[in-house]
Write a structure and sequence with these properties.
The chain is built from 19 helices and 8 strands. The protein has 454 residues and is an alpha/beta fold. It folds into 4 domains: 174 residues, Rossmann fold (3-Layer(aba) Sandwich), CATH 3.40.50; 73 residues, Helicase, Ruva Protein, domain 3 (Orthogonal Bundle); 90 residues, Zinc Finger, Delta Prime, domain 3 (Up-down Bundle); 86 residues, Orthogonal Bundle (post-AAA+ oligomerization domain-like), CATH 1.10.3710. The strands form 2 sheets. It has a 6-stranded mixed beta sheet with strand order 1-3-4-5-2-6, sandwiched between helices. The protein has a two-stranded parallel ribbon with strand order 7-8. Strand 4, helix 6 and strand 5 form a beta-alpha-beta unit. Helix 5 packs parallel to helix 6 and helix 10 runs parallel beside helix 12. The longest helix has 18 residues. The radius of gyration is 30 Å and the shape is extended. The N and C termini lie far apart (82 Å).
């Protein structure tokens, strides 16, 4: 049946459509499949879900029939968690492809699970990868199985489920958020695959430079790291007659990606980031693209890049282009919503937007100047007419007396003192004559004269 795959749990009777979890561990299976963790103890990362008493551990060890929604980046263990859940609880594992399956296949999977439960008492884990690709009708078709607990649904998504999953399904499932794997997590996955009997069984060793390259390329995706390792191991095997090593040159050829000299904790990180920011500030869009590509290809955290763009939008562009900050914030939100590698497009668009925008540092100069005065002790009392006049007795203290309501004044601007006496004549915001700020500069000069009676 197209879009429907069944696998036997240990000790279960054979599935109608054949196959088994163990059957996926044959020698010709992909390394990432052979090395898939079989228990929670083998799962790398996600410690917040594996602590004693944590939801996932309670579900597996307590054998509770609770449906799950797993939300996280690719390669963080969503499929693995579903298979571990079925394996350790002796449930049948049924996978429905969100790409190939329709409502008919979903209903058939649930109906088969219901009949199996009645006939043998065996429960079923129904795994739906990329559930966000399901239409509303397809997601609706899952509800009877979830409501009646004919299946333990494990639905995985890389997109925000609050936007991509229907509310009835969301409310009937336990939402678990998977975190991106750290470099150390990925390095652990690769090292384990090198020595494990299901993996390379100690036949090859790997140079540290090659290992670092694989980790960078993986970008927190364990499956990708094993795919690259398998390619590098195959290349290394053809270059030696006996046990050999996987070196950097072999790895670069095998994955067709040159190693980017970039240490996220070292000088390269700071140097490239500095050059990236200064290239945008200097309006060199091509140079900015180069440094962005270096960071992306080296596996830099896209959230770090997005944060730098949001800061730069106010620090170096400001009101010279009022659309700069919304563009940078939108890119940061897209990074969270979409993830890599697609989010590199959003980062590139925001980078080009900021690089090509007129520049102004008036925002940072304004807040720095104001902060300097405050730190210097220039914090006089608030003028009485601006103080809160809503509580009892405040008017007797003169609060609010003489306050001019700006909307009642000509041009919506009231001539009165707003700042404390100590900084009444201070000038913090000094707009440039660049971009949209040129118009603001002319307006601010007129407004300031009217407000201050100049």
């Amino acid at each position: 049946m197209d879009g429907l795959f069944e696998y036997d749990a240990p000790g279960a009777e054979p599935a109608a459509s054949g196959g088994s979890l163990a059957g996926n561990e044959h020698a010709s299976a992909p390394l990432a499949v052979r090395m898939r963790p079989r228990t929670l103890e083998e799962l790398v990362g996600q410690q917040h879900l594996l602590q004693p008493g944590a939801p996932l551990r309670r579900l597996v060890e307590g054998d509770q029939p609770m449906s799950l929604l797993l939300w996280g980046p690719p390669g963080t263990g969503k499929t693995t968690i579903a298979s571990v859940l079925s394996r350790q609880t002796d449930r049948q594992f049924v996978e429905v492809s969100a790409v190939a399956a329709g409502v008919k296949e979903v209903r058939a999977a649930i109906d088969g699970a219901r009949k199996r439960l009645v006939r043998t008492g065996q429960e079923t884990v129904l795994f739906v990868d990329e559930v966000h690709r399901f239409t509303k009708a397809q997601q609706d078709a899952l509800l009877p199985g979830v409501e009646n607990r004919w299946v333990t649904l494990v639905a995985a998504t890389t997109e925000n489920p609050f936007f991509s999953v229907i509310s009835p399904l969301l409310s009937r499932s336990l939402l678990l958020t998977l975190e991106p794997l750290t470099d150390d997590d990925v390095r652990d996955v690769v090292r384990r695959a090198l020595v494990d009997e299901r993996g390379l069984a100690g036949e090859l060793e790997i140079d540290e430079e090659a290992l670092d390259h694989l980790v960078r390329l993986a970008g927190g995706d364990a499956r990708r790291s094993l795919t690259y390792l398998e390619a590098a191991a195959g290349a290394a095997a053809t270059e030696t007659d006996g046990p050999g090593r996987i070196d950097l040159a072999t790895t670069e050829r095998a994955v067709d990606r040159a190693a980017v000299r970039y240490d996220r904790q070292g000088d390269q990180h700071y140097d490239v980031t500095s050059a990236f920011i200064k290239s945008i500030r200097g309006s060199d869009a091509d140079a900015a693209m180069h440094y962005l590509a270096r960071m992306v290809e080296a596996g830099e955290d896209p959230r770090f890049i997005a944060r730098r763009l949001v800061i730069l939008a106010s620090e170096d562009v400001g009101l010279a282009d009022p659309t700069a900050l919304p563009a940078a914030v939108a890119a940061a939100q897209a990074v969270q919503l979409i993830g890599m590698p697609e989010a590199r497009l959003n980062l590139a668009q925001a980078t080009l937007h900021l690089a090509l925008a007129p520049k102004s540092n008036a925002v940072i100069k304004a807040i720095d100047a104001a902060s300097a005065d405050v730190r210097a002790g220039k914090v006089g009392p608030v003028p009485p007419h601006l103080r809160d006049a809503h509580y009892g007795g405040s008017k007797k203290l003169g609060h609010g007396t003489g306050y001019k309501y700006a909307h009642d004044e000509p041009y919506g601007i009231a001539e009165q003192q707003y700042a404390p006496d100590v900084v009444a004549d201070a000038t913090y915001y000094e707009p440039t004559a660049l971009g949209a700020e040129a118009g603001l500069r002319e307006r601010w000069e007129r407004v300031r004269r009217r407000v201050r009676g100049g």
